[in-house]
Amino acid sequence: MLKVSIITVCFNSASTLERALRSVIEQDWPNIEYIVIDGASNDGTQHILERFRSHVTHLVIEPDHGIYDGMNKGLAKATGEIICFLNADDHYASSGIISQVVEEMTDKGLDALLGDVGFFQKDNPTRITRRYRSDRFRSERLAWGWMPAHPAFFLRKELVQRVGQFNSSYRIAGDFEYIVRVFHGKTPVYQHKPEVMVLMQVGGVSTNGWRSKILLNREVIRACKENGLRTNWFMVLSKYVWKVQELLPIERIDWAGLWLRVSRAKSRN
Predict the structure, then answer these.
(1) For residues 138, 9, 15 and 120, what is the CA-based torsion angle, rounded to 10 degrees?
(2) What is the bridge-based pairing of β-strands 153-156 and 82-85?
(3) What are the tens digits of pLDDT across the range 37-57?
(4) What angle do CA 5, 38, 128 make, to 5 degrees?
(5) From CA 233, how far away is CA 231, in angstroms rounded?
(6) Which domains does the chain have, with CATH numbers?
């Protein structure tokens, strides 16, 4: 039976970790390898990990050099045919998510599956305030700062082995830089599943204030340039115009795709 490796990296995550752990434990797919990398937390996180130790296949507790260093430690432990990451402040939307992923990727011969992520506020975890829709992602939009929702991004082990490790010198956009390497050049066989697969609490490192946004976009531009993609601040910041639609409960127009087509038409004239 196909094995799925789920990796959670945490540090001082006592307020949210149990919810993430339970959402993995409750998955109905029977062959899950669960890997937890804790960066030597000191807030009670380790007490939670002790309670759930029997459900964790590999547990590493030691200081690290940031989240992407922790992710690399998780990748080094992963032996599953499908590999994914679940952040400590995220959780799966239902108990059948991993089963759906296995079925979809197996039946359609996919290298990667992209799902959606729903955002919620700390004080109201049952109400989704924004939906990150991965169906807008195309490889040609990388230079504009677009990426699929990383917590709902599932990869075949062969693809992970080809791409390699995360660049741990990034502070906040290492997942974007990794996805650039996944999709730039030899595009994998992938598909979007129009479903909220992961729920994310607002307030994480990439959604926490304007300073984080500046750092994120600076690193997005760096990631593009280091991987041979031409971009600029205008291109990267323009995505926020289209992201406003994620807050609206109405049928959405693919403005990002329209903008891209108009830009191409102008460049040909």
Answers:
(1) 10
(2) antiparallel
(3) 999 999 999 999 999 999 999
(4) 70
(5) 7
(6) 4-248 (3.90.550.10)
